[in-house]
Amino acid sequence: MRSGPVRAKICGLKTPETVEAAVTGGASHVGFVFFPRSPRAVEPQVAGRLAASLPETVTSVGVFVDPDDALLESVLADVPLGMLQLHGAETPERVAAVRARTGRPVMKAVAVSEPADLDRASEYLSVADWLLFDAKPPKDENALPGGNGLAFEWRLLHGVEIQAPWMLSGGLTPENVAEAVRVSGATHVDVSSGVEEAPGRKSAALIRDFLGALAPIRR
Question: Which residues, other chains included, contact 141 with Cβ-Cβ below 8 Å and sequence gap of 6+?
Fold first, then answer.
C-alpha cells in the first residue's frame, strides 16, 4: 500500500551548512557520530549546537559503537538527542540497558551479507525501537563498523516481514537510492559516505541530490 514518501536519515553531519541542506531537503533524521576512529566523528559541543537548531520534525540521532555508560552520559549532557543508534557488537541485553538508562529510543544496526544475517534481527525486536540494515564491514581489523560505502544484496529484504520500523543503509548514493528502495521495499534509508566529497566531508549539493532522488517515490 502506498502511504507516503520514503524518508531519509543523513548521517555524519558536522557543519551548519550540511544540516541546513538535510533539513530543507526533507530529511526525517540527521545523525551525529560519536566514534573517535570515524572521520565523521564530531565533538559533543558542536553536535549540541547543531542538534538544537533542528525543527521538531527532524530527529537527531547519536551514533555510537559499543559505548560505555560514561560516554553516553557525557554526550547526552551536551546534545539533545532524540534517538541513539548502536552500531557495534551490542547484545540485546546491552541494547535494553542503554534504552532503560537513557530513556531514549534505540536503533540497532545489523550487519548483512547473507540471508542468515537477517535472522539476527529477531533477537533485537523486543529491545530496539528501530533496526538498521547495513553491509558487513570489510574483514580488516582497521575497518569501520559502518560508513564504508559498501552495499549488500538489497533483494534479501524484499518481502521480508520485519516487526519493527527499519532503515536501509550501506553504499547508497543519489544515483542508486531509488533502485535500492524499489528492490528492498525500504520506507526509510540512511546515507553517509554516499553524500561526501571525501571521507568525513559532506557535500550540501550531494545531500540535496540524494533527497531530491527520493522526493518522487511513494511507498
Answer: none
